[in-house]
Amino acid sequence: MITDTIYATLQATFSARLYPVQAPDSPTVPYAVFFVVTAPPENNLAGFAGLTNTQIQLDVYARTYEAAKALAQAAFDAMEASAMQQVCTETGRDLYETGTKLHRQLLEFSIWHGVEASVDTIIGEESATGEVLMESGEEMELEVQP
User: What radius of gyration, in Å, describes the C-alpha atoms of the chain?
Assistant: First the structure.
């Protein structure tokens, strides 16, 4: 799953203080939370094109503005250096959480990646020309072109 890849990519930057979806109550500062904003599949006239564009939001929290900026930059660098293809930052925002008195950096990443199709949905299906796309027992491999 793409979220597992993102977690593994960012884990070294945040140690044990990287949380998917929601941080626990009273987390150790600094910390980060990431979640999938949207993950629409890429379609064309023939149907699913084999790619998904997953949008990830990463929120970095720290006690000082400088620490939040530095951790956000480290996260950005880790994502850019990762093996994930087509990683790019969409936005970056400086925020302050008055309730917790924490500085927050909000980053959004757009990641294009292939997905593994379910063999059950492909075996025996016919294409528009009537050709059987895959026979039972055949191995399936998806190749993603940049």
Answer: 19
